[in-house]
Prior knowledge:
Layout: H1 2-23, E1 27-29, E2 41-43, H2 45-64, E3 69-71, H3 80-85, H4 88-91, E4 93-98, E5 105-107, E6 128-131, E7 134-138, E8 146-150, H5 155-160, H6 162-169, E9 175-184, E10 199-209, H7 215-232, E11 240-244, E12 256-264, E13 267-278, H8 280-289, E14 295-296, E15 303-304, E16 307-314, H9 315-326, E17 327-332, E18 335-340, E19 351-355, H10 361-378, E20 381-383, H11 389-398, E21 403-407, H12 409-414, E22 416-421, E23 427-431, H13 435-443
Parallel strand pairs: 3-9, 19-20, 19-21
Antiparallel strand pairs: 1-2, 4-5, 4-6, 7-8, 9-10, 10-16, 11-12, 12-13, 13-16, 14-15, 17-18, 21-22, 22-23
Helix pairs in contact: 2-9
Amino acid sequence: MKENTAKNKDNDLMEKIVSLCKRRGFIFPGSEIYGGLAGTYDYGPLGSLLKKNIEDSWVNFFIKNRENVYLIDTPILMHPRVWEASGHVENFVDPISKCGVCGHSFRTDQIEDKDKCPDCGGKLTSPNNFNLMLETKVGASEETAIKTYLRPEEAQSMFVNFKNVLQSLSPKIPFGIAQIGKAFRNEITPRDFTYRLREFEIMEFEYFIHPNSPWESYFDNFLLEQKEWLSRIGVDTTKLHSLEHGEDGRAHYSIKTVDLEFEYPFGTKELTGLSHRGDFDLRRHQEYSGEKMEVLDEATGDKFIPHVIEPTVSVDRAILALLCSSYREEGIGDDVRVYLKLPPSIAPYKACVSPLLKNKPELITYAKNVFKDLKKEFGWITYDDNGNIGKRYRRQDEIGTPFCIVIDFDTLTDDTVTVRDRDTGEQERVKVAELIGFIKGKIN
């Protein structure tokens, strides 16, 4: 009974988050006016800002604060030989079973009864391997077009540019190459909102180290940093769990893999990954391309192929974990206040400016001037004069705006404004001349 109650509560939470995301402009179903396309979602005005803030936070934490990690930006199309070298053509597969009655397909490893259809009870076929890469063709005609793939991961873009970065910047080992970008997977059963998508965004870097260096210390440090960064953006770290994969659960290139899993409403699932990829990728690209991927050891005069530690996180899964962590309800019955307890640095808008009444020109003029000054300083400030002040507060609470600034009649005489805190509902008077410093202090 308790298990069913907890499951219903989790389902209820997920429904509320999906509804809020659509209603308030965070996330929309992809191609919705045509009935949607499974496994695709669009980030709306507020979702795009939230996404950008999370990406900027990741860059600041993992890239800008290091002197030896270099950011690149590469296309989603690559030479098809890249995916032969990486092992994706051969190994990037999932087992799939199909129902002989309803025709539905399922990942065989994700269903309890391997012979019985979960939807209609019909008999399932024996599992076949299904390659998850999305094929496309590049070329002006069918006869001369080259078959390639929409990249299933970002990592290979960084490996094929290893030599370019080495020659152009002359970095010393250890150093990293980082990227934020799209990847694609032809998921058999995309599900759980934005958790499992056919098009998704990844933030990761490849950290190149000497084969004889103590890689365990790099690995353990990156794992701690992943937890710290997730905490900084507002993810509930009490719901994080480390999972080290055994040999059967690791990718073909991995020597060691540890995931940070998060307790989503639909189950505890992977949020971040951390892998020791050894020299698999660089060695394979050296073999398939004929280009040397070796580095000179200045101490010994020997050449070596670096090993790689790879910290990675899905932007989409991080956003979903953050929404699940920050969703709050206060009150009972019809008087329930919903708010997103987002860190001010991550929230889409830093503050909302409102005149107490929208039919008083003197209040509107003052409010517009405050709005312009704050927008010039912070950029993402919103203005709201729709409805009464209570409804404005509730609307801004739902989108996670940390501060509501109200210009009232006292403002006209003493140049102070009311600043309301989203989380506590408490209000305080702040001088307009000190408002920028006040918000900066709260954000930082």
